[in-house]
Amino acid sequence: MHPNQSPPWTSERIAALLDLPLPELLWQAQQTHRAHFDPTEVQLSSLLSIKTGGCAEDCGYCPQSAHHDVGLKAGKLMDLDTVLANARAAKEAGAARFCMGAAWREPKDRDLDAVAAMIEGVKALGLETCMTLGMLKPEQAQRLAGSGLDYYNHNLDTSPAFYGNIITTRVYQERLDTLHHVREAGMKVCCGGIVGMGEGRIERAGLLAELGNLDPYPESVPINALVRVAGTPLEHAPDLDPFEFVRTVAAARIVMPRARVRLSAGRRELGDGVQALCFLAGANSIFYGDTLLVTGNAEVDADRALFARLGLHAEGMPAAPEPSVPAARRTIALQQSD
Question: Considering 97, 143, 175, 190, which one is annotated as catalytic?
Answer without folding.
Answer: 190
